[in-house]
Amino acid sequence: MSKPLILVTNDDGITSKGIASLISVVKEIGEVFVVAPDSPNSGMGHAITVDSTIHIKKSNIFGDIDAYECSGTPADCVKLAKHHLLKGRKIDLVVSGVNHGHNASISVIYSGTMAAAREASIEGIPAVGFSIDDFHYDADFSHTMPFIRKVCEATIKNGLPKHRALNVNFPKKSEEPIKGMKVVRQTNGFWKEEFDAREDPYGRPYFWMGGEFINHEPESQDTDVWCMENNYVGIVPCKTDMTDYEAIETLKGWKF
C-alpha cells in the first residue's frame, strides 16, 4: 500500500525551525514533498503573484526529501506544487507551518500560513495550518509533535468536507503539559493597530506598525484564544465560502 502524499509549506520560509519540526512529524506518516517560500512571508494573507515572475529552485535542506524554495507567496507555493511540480499526482494532505506566532481569531485572514491551507482547500485537498503562540525564531516546538501527528492522521483517515481547512493553534511551551485538544470557533476579536512615526537620516517619514489584540469575549471557553490561554490545542474548521447567509434576506429588503 502506497504512503499518502503530503505537501508541506509555510509562510516563515524554507529555513525556519517551524517547517523543519513539521516535516520531522509528517515524514513518519507519508511521502513528503516540500514547496516553501525562499524568504519570510508573514502577514501575506492570500496574495498571489500576478505581475512578476516566480522562481523555484531545488533544495537539499531536508536531505533526501524532495524540496523546492519558491520566490512567490505561500498560496503560490501550493498552486505551483499542485499544477506543475506534482501535476498528475493526487495530493492526500497539505500541511502548512508550524508558524512562529499564533493565527487565532482575526489573524486567520492575515496569515500566509492559513492562506496556503485555504488554497489547498479551494483545490479540494484536505489541509491543515499549524501555528504556535510563540513568535521567537528559536521557539520550542517539541510539545506540538504528538498532536500534529494525531491531527494529520485523523484528517487523512476521515477527510474534510469540500473546501474546508483546519486552523490549529498551540499554546507556547510551558512546564505544564498540554491538557488536550478542543474543536472550537474563531474568537471574536481584532488587532488595535498603533503606528510609530519616525524619520530616516534623509528626513523621509516611515512607520513601524504595532498594537495589541482586543478580545471581545475573554470569558468564552469555546474559542481558539481561550484554548491557548488555558493550555489546550484549539482546532477551528474554516471554509472558503465567506457569504453571510443570515444577511441575504435582510439585503433583499433593501431598495437599491
Structural commentary:
The chain has 256 residues and is an alpha/beta fold. Helices cover 25% and strands 29% of the residues. The chain has seven helices and eleven strands. The chain has a nine-stranded mixed sheet, with helices on both faces. A two-stranded antiparallel ribbon has the order 9-10. Strand 3 and strand 4 form a beta hairpin. Helix 1 packs across helix 5 and helix 2 runs parallel beside helix 4. The protein is globular. The protein starts with a strand and ends with a helix. The relative contact order is 0.15.
Name some characteristics of this structure.
alpha/beta; 9-stranded mixed sheet; two-stranded antiparallel ribbon; globular
What layout of secondary structure does this protein have?
Blueprint: E1 5-9, H1 17-26, E2 31-37, E3 56-59, E4 66-70, H2 74-85, E5 93-100, H3 107-110, H4 112-122, E6 127-132, H5 145-158, E7 164-170, E8 181-183, E9 189-199, E10 205-215, H6 224-229, E11 233-239, H7 245-252
Parallel strand pairs: 1-2, 1-5, 2-4, 5-6, 6-7, 8-11
Antiparallel strand pairs: 3-4, 7-11, 9-10
Helix pairs in contact: 1-5, 2-4
